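Figure-free illustration: sequence to structure, shown twice.
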Amino acid sequence: MKIAMIGTGYVGLVTGACLAKIGHRIICVDRDNAKIETLKRGEIPIYEPGLSELVTKSVAKGKLEFTTDLAEAVQAADVIFIAVGTPQADDGRSDLTQVEGAAKQIAKAANGSKTIVVKSTVPVGTGRRVGRILGKHGDDHEFEVASNPEFLREGAAIEDFMHPDRIVIGTQTEAGAKTMRAIYAPFDNGTLPFVMTSLETSELTKYAANAFLATKVAFINEMANLCDATGADVTELARGIGLDERIGKHFLQPGPGYGGSCFPKDTLALTIQAQEADTPTRVVESVVLSNSHHIRRLGKKIADFCADSWGVDRKLPLLGKRIAVLGLAFKAETDDIRSAASTVIIPLLIKQGAEVIGYDPQAAEAAAEQVPFLQTTKNMDEALDGADAVVVLTEWQVIRDVDWNRAKHKLASPVVVDMRNLYDPHTMAAAGIHYASMGRPLIEPDLTPSPKLVSVG
């Protein structure tokens, strides 16, 4: 099937490349000429494991191409996906300017009947809104409008697309549903659930899924904080509740709060739409507040633990200290720093007088541009050299694999605050490191000097 993908951001590029992989002919459209020229050269503007290779192979097979000419792409396609950005507006709502603009351009360019698929994450009612725009500007052409939300995790997007838990499709007619089933026919193996529903239900499903996952993240972080206060262990607590099939073990790993391009934006947009519908989502509202409070309180946790480890007063202990932050992206396997904990916590440390150097294998440059006074490096040893304390914010494998028996010798002071619970507290204590994590009891470090080797003979 010939498909036009309007938007070559994260969702559009991944979706376009994966649809090409399963046999469709895809033309990706973007008004950013520089981005299109970059893609034509085989350069990928975002970091996503496996995406570069997938795009290269699809282009070589003639299944994927890039253009700035929306009209040409629309006229050549049977189906047009709208995968443009829906950024958070100043009032917290999703800004639909790009979605509406794309719909208007599609209508004006159409040379016959088309199926329009809204892939962007949008509030309930957007599909109907797109339909009205198409009808107003479409020269009496017939348009089928469908909703097909994405459920792609950054860092595992290709795997998620090629091996989905379910495919959610919202349509208005049987013809629209038939077209959408045809697009995803390679996945229709008789066991994968296809959730065929209305536009409204499809749109709300995306928001509801993200809100529920965000709720689990906020919940386990609150439990971790309570464990810190009571001496309980959140790792054992998470296992104890996660073995209940009604709860499940996923998303019960404490951390520095949720971030990225989806959870913060989507939870807030959902609460606003619910308020406007006079059906406030009190649980989700509390999740938004809980996550914001959690991230900010970590600045104090870091300062207090450093003060106690250094044996100094808790009043401005970070003044003049060098703090190494390991991990700047909101999660591993991505270069995305949108709403990342690092963009909140690092300014709090700098405000307390700390000199902060951040390490991240992919997000260092983006973080340096967004966070004033932050020094960054792609060399972890450079970050660790002379650091008075280390703060771990992202669960990159290279950070998990740090040998602290070796790395501690680079530090001015052996203090590690781990917001991802990557290391075993007993192992860190045995290495002579003052170590704090999320919701796990503190263990006093072994500060006994290592015995000196004496040469005999």
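We now fold a second protein in the same way, so the two outputs can be compared directly.
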Amino acid sequence: MDLLYRKLADELAGLIASGGFQAGDRMPGVRQQAQQHQLSIATVISAYRQLEDWGLLEVRNRSGFYVKPRPLAQIQAPRVHVTTMRPAPVSGQDMVLQLVKAANDPNIVQLGAAVPASEFLPTRAIEQALTKVARQQRVRSANYEFSPGAPELRRQISRRLAEARCAIHPDELIITNGCQEALTLALRAVTQPGDVVAIESPTFYGLLQVIESLGLEALEIPATPQTGMSLEALELALSRWPVKACVVTPNFSNPLGCSMPDANKQRLVSMLKARGVVLIEDDIYSDLGFSQTRPSLLKALDENVILCSSISKSLSPGLRVGWIAGGIHQPRIEYLKYVLNLATATVPQLAVAELLESGQYERHLRRVRSDYAQAVSRMTKALIETFPEGTKISQPQGGFVIWLELPGNIDSFDLAKQALAAGISIAPGPIFSASKKYSSFVRLSCACEWGSRVERALATLAGLIQGYSPR
């Protein structure tokens, strides 16, 4: 058996290396391989285990063996943008509204907004859940579900968090209109206008808009595509500035796609706790890691970390269901939620609870993680083949966005306008910075409906970059 399993492992490794199996692909079942190669099941399992040891496959619970996303040696990561750290008001967010509007225009190739195309969403299951709720709970569906929100939804969220080794009682959760509202409530609860908030740089532009709307100042802390926020830079900033709160996306951040190591998470929590700085955790992408193992949460290390999340990226952006666990700040957050908009819509809450309780959400995740891994791999491959030499590309291990550093002296704001005129939406780098950094960077969404239209759009973008001249 020793020679047979090694021979099969070598053959499959060759297929993976040549692209016969792509990152995120599910390998043929053990019985199928055994029949095809006329081998015993034990031999095939040994071959798969060997590929797992080589770092080529990963096991997903009750789902089989999958090709593991792996670093591509020929890709250079975007550089870390290091400048003098100083609190500043947020500026340069004007183009975001254009980006959002373009996401709803069917004539535009959508590579800018981080909104999954419908093929990545369980639309049929969502439709069935909404119909079931509307039919079985007519009276309740027509009324407010006042804060803290539907008990059955909070129970299901609590259960999932417990499975991620983060114990939060249902009564400690408040349902929100997506993660954006959760972040807004968290910052409103712990800051006053003029306060300083430490953030990753680059960071999600929605957070920057929240900071701007609340009259806060952003202190940008450089982050790497590999491990996230630089804790050395944060420590230096804390010694110089009166930081009131720190907002971090430790797992598959947007736009870098990085995941903070567990040791860094522990150090971050301890550092901020010792200085009395409120830590706000944006956990919106944790369910979308390419590995089956869900990464750890900062909230699990300190109950007073404010946890914000939603199902907008993993299940449906249109349902607008999120949540927040505020620890000692919970009473204030619940009051602010009531004042802001009374309640989150009832039907979407009950529908999400149904999808969680029935197991359909978990089944969807097992599929969509693989889909996103393939989408990122496919986009990366296309960029390597199409974009000019010198383009640097992030290699996320979760989520569905890619961060690019473009070669040459390119103004990505101007490039985005040229691309939009050509029917293509991209996200220019400066909107991910409070002070308009990242002028030669762009973010692309990989969660698009792939086909010749997207391939032509990438070729057009490559041409605009290659022959770039300011307009």
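Summary for the second example: The mean pLDDT is 91.
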